[in-house]
Structures are given as structure tokens and as C-alpha cells.
What does this fold into?
Amino acid sequence: MNLDEQLAYLTKGAEETIRVEELRSKLERSARTGKPLRVKAGFDPTAPDIHLGHTVLIRKLKHFQDLGHTVIFLIGDFTGMIGDPSGRTATRPPMTPEEVAANAETYKAQVFKILDPEKTVVDFNSRWLDKLSSRDWIALASKYTVARMLERDDFAKRVKEHQPLAMHELIYPLAMGYDSVALEADVELGGTDQKFNLLVGRTLQQEYGQEPQVIMTMPLLEGLDGKQKMSKSLGNYVGITEPPEIMFGKLMSISDELMWRYYLLLTDMTPGQIEEVKHSKLPLEAKKEFAQRIVSDFHGGEEAKWARGHFESSARLRQQKGALTEDEILHENEPVVLHNAFNRKLPPLLVELGLFTSNSEAQRKIKEGAVYMAVPDTGDKRRWQRLDDPTWKFDAATYQGKKVIFRFGHRLVEAELTD
Amino acid sequence: MNLDEQLAYLTKGAEETIRVEELRSKLERSARTGKPLRVKAGFDPTAPDIHLGHTVLIRKLKHFQDLGHTVIFLIGDFTGMIGDPSGRTATRPPMTPEEVAANAETYKAQVFKILDPEKTVVDFNSRWLDKLSSRDWIALASKYTVARMLERDDFAKRVKEHQPLAMHELIYPLAMGYDSVALEADVELGGTDQKFNLLVGRTLQQEYGQEPQVIMTMPLLEGLDGKQKMSKSLGNYVGITEPPEIMFGKLMSISDELMWRYYLLLTDMTPGQIEEVKHSKLPLEAKKEFAQRIVSDFHGGEEAKWARGHFESSARLRQQKGALTEDEILHENEPVVLHNAFNRKLPPLLVELGLFTSNSEAQRKIKEGAVYMAVPDTGDKRRWQRLDDPTWKFDAATYQGKKVIFRFGHRLVEAELTD
It folds into this structure.
């Protein structure tokens, strides 16, 4: 990749990069000197059960790794090992070094499905924060003004609403920012909600005579519902240790719109490659390929292939058994474009749509009153109406371009009616 | 002393005691258990050249010592040894341990003129503050809210005026407050300007599970001008290492009003004893006794006696030689109350006032035009008018109760005219 391609690849999906020019010059210098960039991201030591939402950031780390840079997976154990220092609540007992180490192993087992273990430095910020002397802390605190710290959104809100804000909470962002100084980071990645903290690191590096890090914020991934951010507590998540078939099934349930966003944030494909898929594949096929790709990331290619097969056959099976809801059936089948829809009677149309194998069968079932249709875009409710006249024809003025769902028993087909 | 007398003695001259009831119960418990109270005051390590202003606090420590309690003279070397941690100015280079130790020796040499070296603990807060771990600092900071810290007058002012306030400045009061925790102080003394910091100590002790200290603020001593606070830079000070005669002279220059305040704040006399002096001595005499007492505190009784003699003889000498200004002369002589002032001619009045030895001499000098009078309260300017009629009498309606200054050559007498 040339420099422009590298920049496009690295900034793909990022919410904000401060600043792109600085990243460019760091990449240039790295290429010139052969010295890889040091790319850091911090992780909470208490939550090592990673879902796809977390992988957005980890995958961005991988992109830097793909280009030969050094990734530092930093576990913020300093705060975790302190717990609630005010001693007012028992909700956050301090973690022991053993717990931190155990969590780190769990983390590794999970993130090394994306990151290359050989090219990843796993570090702990207690390594330097625990060693800061009283003098170091005072010096650190002297590098930042109170006013600036209180600009942080959540602090400002709490001050405004007269909610208590303890002094140590103001110190934590300094400690986290100091991580970048200790690591001499060139780039720091974080969620959009981390922007303030990342900027503190940038400022502190300058105060300590270092070149400021580039900061890159990654969006918070929407959950399967496409609305709220992915989180365990909301249930709209895909855990990276979930079984292949569960993962595949969950991913098949997302909307097409969300699928393209997931393509952007959850794969290593370049923006160009994603565009190509968009133009060459039907959404259902693109979604299956996406799901297979993600399952493959965490379970390998064979498992992913099996998961896809499992999904497809079980979908068929369930459809045959009538075990699917109307929505499930429609969701798993592409609408068909039905040409020459207004000159023909119903039976040949229904045969073309695969609902019957012959015109006579279609005609008989229509007469029996067993065939229904619904026009979904007349409202949220799907109002079924019986098709009891085999000679009836669709009127072009009313139905041109409309999608109509036909139903016989448990079988449903959606068709777009055109000339 | 009984408990009430002890309380009166200890709170004498104090601006504020929070709270007197707590001090009473601490004193009671101390008397019961035989365990002396731990009474702490903190001192800046950079300014060991003590003047009388500083002694207000030191003397208050002595009062506790007089009653058998343990005084902790705490040198706040922690901040001094850090200097300006932001590194932005070169104005406050960090002090070396040697400098701190040297300053401590100078301090001791000075304060042990008031405090009993045997009963005084000299300590340095770097002893514990330097040893605080990262975890300790976070825990310390967690004990106090940002909002509360920003209530401190000077912080509030700077925030309001958008002047920079660095984070470490918010931490210093916590560090100073922690001193009380480390020392398990029962009482902390400070200037009125230290009230906020003393209260932080009180709060932190409770947070760390200790009984809160009683805090006692001492007023800032006015300088010799009676207006601004005593300070070296204003020149209105009496240094405790100044020579006896300089000290004595400076103290004789203060106003009567200020003298009584100095009596209260700079001596060990009880309020009752001071009242007694007020009623039994003329102000000039009271002032000489006061000056002698203070000089004696720092140079011993013999030197003080000598200084007083030196002052009196040199005052006479200078007065005789006309070397004094009108103000100096008037200042060093009490106004005389002149009875029966309105029925008599000028010569006997002037003889009674000691300006002449005989009526005939007075009459001659008046005729020669060598005698003047001025009524000071007609304005700031002292307008002299010649008294050239020996037969003139004061008019009671105009002069009743007035103070009039009479002058012959360099000799001046101030008299209050009454029936």
C-alpha cells in the first residue's frame, strides 16, 4: 500500500483522527527510519468477556499491525487494583494481582483471535503508575489545569447538577494520560466516549517533552437491534466466544443497513472492496458471506462453512415444518422481482414464484380458498386477503412496483410486481 | 488553673476556635488520663526570619505548652522540596534537604526563645508525604470533593476570574490536611488565612477514622503602622533577632490602641492582668513596660532593662538637643490634664506644665514672642499661633476638654484643659 492507501485503510470507520496530517508524517517517518509506530489502546481489567462491539477497536489495532506497527494492548489494572478508594461502597472491591493476571489471560485468549500474538505487547499500567512517587504525582497534577479537566462532559454535568465529584476522579484522567507518556505512544485508539482522556494523553506528552500522540476514536458499535450500542446487559450482542451457529444466526438477524455498517467496522476489507460487494451481491447473499467471515474470524473457516450450512438447512427445515414466523420466513428469503405481472392470471404467477408446481394445482388451491396475499406497505399490520378468483389480474395502476406477499399454508413469497 | 481559666487562657486573642466545647472535652480528657494534647502548627520552610507577627502563633503554642501539652512545630518541607512542579518558572527552585535542615536550625534558634525545647517536637511533613504510595494519594484524593475544595476563597476567585489553577494546587491542601492525620493532632493552630486548610485537616481526620482536631485561628498581627499586617516587605515589623535598643524603640513608636492589642497577642498575660495594667498605668508607662517585656523575651531581662534606660536617656538627650521632631516629642510625653485652666493667666499654667520654672520667666518669654500654642484637633495640620499676651485667659466655652500643645523653643507640652 502506498501512503494514501495506508491512511485510507487506517482511518476507515474511525469517527475522528486528530490529526490526519500528523498520522501521515508519523507513517512517513516510520517508513523512512524502519521504526514501527507504537499504537496503544487501554482496556478495563474487569470485563474480559469480549463481544463484537469491543472488536471494532481491536480490529483497528490489527490494521496498524497489518502495516507492521507495534500494538500495545494496555490493561488498566492500576485503577482496578484500587477499587473504590473512598471506601464508601462495597461494590468495587479492589482486584488482586492474581485476578488481574487471570483476566489478562482471558483477554489474550480472546484478542489474539484478531491480533497477532507475536506482534502485540500486552502491558499493565500499574507497572509505572504504582511506582510514581509523591513528587511525581504532584508534578503530574501540575501539568493540567482544573478548569480544563472540568470541561470533560460528565464532570461538567455533575458539577452543574451539584452531584458529588471526588478529587481522585479528577486525577484518574491524568493517570491514564500518563500511560501515553510512559509508553511513548505514537497513536492511541479509543471509543468516542474516550476522546477527552485520549486528548489528555496528547497534552501530557507535550508537557513531558514528547511528540504528541495521534488520537483516533472509533464509533461505539450498534447492537443487533441497530439502535442502542452493543452491550451484554441489553442482550443485543454477539460474544466472540459464542458457538459458530449462534453467532451466524444472530448476524443473519440484522437489518441490511446495519450489515453494511458491520462490514465497515468488523472486517479488514477496504472501503473499495465493500463497495464491490454492495454492487455485485444481493443483500441476503452479502449477509451470509459477512456472517461466515465473522464466524471464520473467531472459529476458523471450516466451522464458519459448517455454520452457514447449518443455518441454511435448518432454515429450510423450519420453513418446511412451519416452525418459522412469517417475519422469519420473509427475512430469510429475498423478494423476487416478478416481471409481466399485469397481463397474466394468478396461477402462472404463483407457479413462477414457486408456491405451486403447476397451474392446475394453483387454480384448485385458489378455488379452495387456501391462497392469501398481503401488501405490506399499507401499514405496519399485514392484512391478509383471500385470493379466491383464479382469473383475477393485478391492475398496473395500483400495483406497479409494489411488493406483495403471497401465502399458501406456511409458505410465503414476497414479490415485486413490474411490467 | 481550673478548666474555665485554661479555656480563657488558651482562647485569649484567638480569632476563632472550632469548637470550644470540643477543646473543653479534650482538655478534660487529657486531665483525666494524663495524656497531653498534641498541638500542631505548620510553618513554611522558606522564611525562617521570624518577626513579632509570627510569634502570635508561636506564643499560642507556648500557652498550650504552659499547660503541659505537647507542641509539634511542623516544618512543611514537602512542598518546599518540590518547588514549582510545573517547571514553568525558575522562581521557586526546589530546596535541597540541606537547605531545609539549615532553615530548621534557624527556626529552632528563634522559636526556642518562646517555646521550651524540651517540650517541643520539631517535625517535617516530607517524613510521611514523601512516603505516600500512588494508592495512598488516590485514596487521599477520594476523601474530598472537588466542589468543596473550590470553595476556598482564593480558588473560587481564580476560577471566577478565569485565572489558571493547576490541579496540583488543589492537592496541596489535602497533603497539608493529611499532616494532621499523620500526626494524630488534637489541636491545630494557624493564621486566619489558614482556616480553610485547617478545616481540611479536621475533615480528613474523620475520614481516616480519627477524632477531628480542634482548630484555632490567630489573627494576623498589624504592623507598627497599626494598619497593614506586619511584614518584612512593608517595613512595619519588629524582627525577633533585632538588637534590644532597636526593638525597644520600634515598640515605643506604636499607638496606644495598638499597644493594647500587642499586649493581648504578644504576651502571656491573662486578660485580667492586662485589664489591671490598663487601669493602673499611664499609657506611656504601660508602653515602656510592654517594650521591656518583649525585649526581655528575646534578649533577656538585663538587656531589656538596658534598652529601656538607653531609650529614656537618649530621648531626653535628643529632646534637649532639639533633635526630635514635634511628633516624636509629643509621642513620648503623656498629655497632662491641666485643672483650673480657665481662671488663670498663661504664666502659672505654663509653669505648672513645666515649660518654665517661674511665672516671671514665662511672662518675659511670652512678651518676647517665644511661646506658641496649637490646637491639634482643628485638623491634620498643626497651626502654631503666637501667645504674646501674658494676661490672656482660655475661654471655657471654647477650650473645655480640648487638648492644646504649648511650645517654647524645642520644648513641647500637650495639655488637656479642664475646670
